[in-house]
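Final report, closing paragraph on structural work. Over the funding period we assembled a curated collection of sequence-structure pairs, and we close with a single example.
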Amino acid sequence: MKAVVCGVMATWPVGGVAWDYLQYVLGLEELGFEVTYLEDAGLAGYEPVERCYTEDLAGGVAFLQSTLADNAAGIAGSGRWHVRGPDGQTWGMDPSALIETVAGADVFLNVSGMCLLREEYLESRCKVLIDTDPGWNHFVVFPRHDAGMLWPGTSGFRAHDRFFTYAARTGRPGCQLPDLGLQWEALLPPVVTSRWTARPAGRRWTTVLTWDNYAGVVEHCGRRYGSKGPELARIEDLPALTGLELELAVGGVDPPVERWQSRGWSVVDGPSASRTADSYRGYVSGSRGECSVAKQIYTATGSGWFSSRSVCYLAAGRPAVLQDTGWSEGLPNGRGLLSFDDAEGATRALRTVERDYERHAVAAREMAEEHFAASVVLGRLLDRVGA
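Its predicted structure, as stored:
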């Protein structure tokens, strides 16, 4: 069995992003697949040291090679990876070999939908789109495709054969995400639990975020949707309310660090915490737990979205106290994983965990193994698509 996994590890060379795609690569390998990694987003790459963008992906490719060598030695050793930059330069396996691999794959997973659907990729018989950023995709990216705003010579998102989304409530009453005339299937973010082992818990509840992802707001049908800023403002007084140590590892443009610090938050540099896949895993595993809001676009649309970051905390045996996007409709809520809607609810949830921390830590790991383990999540996906 052969699979192609598409991602953006070289375009966004930071540890947290790397894990978003490694979970699929490693999970499919555990299920017996020969996996090839493909990156062809047509985008300039992020340069995390200089914090700028560049058309030259050479630095990102070096990050990818290092990440694969450390975490997916089979792919690194066999050279089963390919990156194509926005200027057409390629790295990794020969383009002709890639085309043959894509055509022969049992499944082509376009994780996050970032891979351009070039004509040669359409030869795959099972092209699966995995929407990991609902709202942004539904209100911005997909309408652009339908309007014909595409990279020359490529097809839009409708050219996939199957459609999965992290927005588990798509199509349910109260969910404001349009189905766009497609049959969407819910998918939980997978985590390879064997790569996340328990270690002594830290003192601080943490989370990792990028500030102002959308550079403003997203507007759709007269409504305005933001990123994490509006939601984080609602729980800014949490350190004072709980008396607990809380920390934000933040990247992005001009985050209000001094304001958060004045309210008792510890603030560290997100790109440094997420410099490599290993440093990101160390930061997550060394936390006491995760306490995080979601992007406003996820909560206001009633999407049911769940975080690929939070499943890493759970797999590391770290309890997660998370803003509810509607995910509590489909997942156990109260042991290891607890929801909140506002600062009062977050305070109550954090105190609940602290009263019996060890029990919640064990439950967090059990939650990851039962609901988010890559073998479970990807096994179901493969059954549905017949791969």
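The CA atoms of residues 201 and 288 lie 5 Å apart. The chain has 15 helices and 20 strands. We thank the funder for supporting this effort.
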